[in-house]
Amino acid sequence: MMNKILVSALLIIISCGKTEKIVLETEPKDPIHKTLVDQNESQAARIWLEKSIKNYFNGNLGGLNHTMEEITTKEYYEYKTDATNVDMDVDGSLTEKEFHEKWKNQFNTKKAGIGVGFLISGQDWNKIEISKCRLISKGKNNFLFDVKLTDREYEAEYPIQVKVVKVKNQFFIADVLQD
Q: Buried b vs exposed e over 95-119: b needs ≥16 C-beta within 10 Å?
């Protein structure tokens, strides 16, 4: 009987201890803090994008597709692969009409960069540099950047717009608008 009383008393003492509930807000209510969070998110997305582009073009040529797959959403990767292979003599390639029909509801197929590579239209390059990366717009978890890639040796400039999305605290390229 004494053991039951001791155990009960101990449980009462433990349960009466002060507990604090920590609440983390995902969206700040104060407009000033919200602006700072938005700027930090946008800046983080821009830094990630610039680093990813540099790593992509400085990577080993045999691993480029794998690298592209790692930095893009699955849907965009499939879309861009289809766009690159339009009217080519490879398994699964689509005609231009089939491509537009397949993807017209998810992407602006007129800006897909049909028949050209990921991020740049040139097949060869020496050293791709980012000469501009400016935020155009921001949504809840997406960012649209105006980007200009340059290759001084080939005297080439590649103006593009890149949509970056944030999924589970990771950034991915969700679309590249190419002319």
A: eeeebbeebeeebebeebbbebbbb
